[in-house]
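Course assignment 3, question 2. Fill in each field.
Student: A.L.
Task: Predict the tertiary structure for the chain below.
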Amino acid sequence: MKSRILLCLGWSLLFFAACTKSPNEPVKYVDLRYLAKDTYSLAALDPEPLSIQVKSTYPWEVYNTAPEWVTITPETGVPGELYDVTIAYHDNNALDDRIDTLTIKSDYWVGKKIVVFQKGVAYLTTSFDETSALSEKESEQTVAVLSNQKWSAKITSGEEWLKIISKSQGELDGEVTLHAAENLGEQRSGTLTLYDRHGVEQVNVSIHQKGVQLDPDLTYLRTDHTEQQVSVAVHSNTRWTVSKVDSTQEWYTFAKTEYNDNEPLLINFTKNEGSAVRTAVIELSTAAVPGITPVKKQIVIKQANDNTPSRQELDETELAKWRTFSGGKPQVVNGNDASFRNARIIRDNMPIGYYAFRVLPVGKTNSQVFIIQGSNELRLHFEGAKGRIFINPRPWRQGKNVAFDTTKPNTIAVNITKSRTKKGKIDLEYFLNGESIQKMEAFGMDPETPFSIIMGANNGTAIFDYYEYSAPIKWGDE
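Answer field:
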């Protein structure tokens, strides 16, 4: 037996050759074509009819596993004509979902089987207002259950203070009564979970109880090396204080240490003139009230060291650290600028960090900066003839074309850091004249492996004024 399958314009075409009983008997071919999905999902009540198309060189039929569930029009067809087949499923009034299989067949060849999922009418929900909160006093709360089936209920979080005291299971509509213990501390939340007749989780109801609130907007703060004041939003409903976990640290202070309700926390930083990141932990605590457990929250604060880029003039001393890549060596002009005429140079063993390249007016010249690690490349093109910066990474990712003024000096920069989302990869941010123009995450370069930098011009003359470099800040939690 021979068979062949072709796809064309969304149609599935199946040509079947039947096995013959003798060498002289003619081969029987079936050309069955259809347009249908692999699966369909339908509502329990008033489901939308399905529509498929069928055509064959032999009589065909469409049938299903459970004929009483559906009306198929037409169910059969004659050879050579294209049919629109409507498949109308009846309402599924049973609680359970059901699954059916449709079969498209011509002669004795099955062309396709289609799986149809139809929902049942079972439902399980609640009308409880999850935005409300119970009193901090000992109390009871009723949760209305809306259902047309058997159900059960269980406390799945907050069991230490929240209990079911009535109706942990039922059938049809009902109520679950909860008991909440007195709250002498922080506001809290628990979860009531409802399960259907099969024990499958269907609804999670959040139950909140009032209490003391002390929620800073963040628990980790980074700031740069400069002297400054930083404001942190705090959500509270009581008096609270802030203190240093290590009282000997003098490089930061608080504008004040006592606050009320939603006042912002104000932290004053001195300038970090050291060579490393400074780290501290501060603690927020609600004021002492008899009978109430204080709420405490900590924030880790880190201040960067000064990593202002160092400038490398492209004089003879600096150019001696580079080697020719193509077209010969650049000429030193203006005392400390490098003039490239159809020439490029390369320097190896360069670490990750921030790199900025200052290029004098390029006119119609195409100048380049490439950062390379094995087969991975970050290509930056100054296309003077087109008046654009072209970012072209390899492996390819969608780079940007950014217009620039070819009659003025321009600085193109890229900040290369360890990826925040994928170990062994890098994150990138590109800048043109100090403004961010594109970011890329988890690019395929190893941050621990040095790479090479190529710069120069491949069409005309380009003058590079200088380049700058700064190492990444070592926050200690990368």
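Instructor remarks: The two ends are 62 Å apart (CA to CA). Confidence is low (pLDDT under 50) at residues 1-10, 14-21.
Grade: pending
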